[in-house]
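Our consortium's second objective concerns turning raw sequence data into structural hypotheses that experimental partners can test. To show how far this objective has progressed, the report includes one record in full. It was chosen at random from the queue rather than selected for favorable results. The single chain below, 376 residues long, was entered without modification.
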Amino acid sequence: MWMQARPSGPLSPGTLIRSDVAWPARTDCRGTEVVDRRARTTPACSMPLDYRPLARDEGAFQQPLTADEIRAVIRRVFGAGCQVMSAVELGTGMYNSTYRVEIVGTEAVVLRVAPAPERQFRSERELMRNEHASIPWLSVIAPLMPRVIAADWSHEVIGRDYMLQSLLEGVPAPERLSAYPRETWGGYFRQLGEITAAVHRVRGPHFGPVAGPGHARWSQAVLASLEDIAADIEGVGLDPADLRKVAAIAADHRAVLDEVTQPRLLTGDLWTVNVMLSQTAPVPTISGVLDFDRTWFGDPAADWTIRMATAKDDERRAFWDGYGVPNRVSAGAVLRSRIYEARHLGALRLERFRLGHRDAVARSYEEMAAVLSALA
């Protein structure tokens, strides 16, 4: 069930509290909707905090919070008397910093902290805010998703966006799937196809990121995304010329891109790494999905999930049993799919650079050259 967030005082702009308890809402003098309730806290004491961050290089992209910052965030949401027992950093994500936090007297929660604003790429600005804006649109898979307890964009406690979420039951799919006989994996991919299809059936009000900026035409959203990624590639000292060539080809074929007229909700990043499996089910059974910070509205064929479903001819063929077979036979669909692949490769180049995978960065240029050759 929803955890009751108990703030000890007025909330600042950007702080959102959600609960399954029907507390009366009010609006403060600054126009921020907050929840009016009585704080029930106990006096804070100097309980030792079992703090376990991951070992990272000093210059690593993901920067941890200090133990005191974690205490401050938790007490901001649950009240000054809240006692934090432990904070263990999880290594499952490559963008946000994520902690499993144990609190006296209540269930464990997950604290996700965005990179500092100055560390974010132009093509990845405020992804956590985009995820939060996506929650109403993802109601079709709500039973599988973590529940948001609080979200704070104010930067008053720490200089970064953060969200507190419920802890999903299960085991990360990369750890659990291999424990099952390979002949059972098809059922897992079929479930993933069903989840993706449910998301793709949701119609959006514009093209582009859920939180905006929105575009009236699909070509505008695609070109804006390609330009942002190219600018980021150039900003880190890499050559963006190949991606800019793709953008020029996409601009010349605006009419083909604009054959897509209905914005559909795209998961942005859904694949095995963002899936939880039941720990006890006799066959692979999806118990949760997470990390929808890259959602956008557009052509379902442009979704990362579709790209991964077609990447290999193996058990993932069963994905299409759950999803349905997409229409990829027209010349326009083929051209669009190549532009989408170039966009994926550009985003991967940035991620590989951020993670320090220099050989993989070099390979991205070879992979992009193949796409350009097919587009020529």
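The partners drew two points from this record. The two ends are 54 Å apart (CA to CA). The domain at 15-166 is CATH 3.30.200.20 (Phosphorylase Kinase; domain 1). Both points have been shared with the crystallography group to help prioritize constructs.
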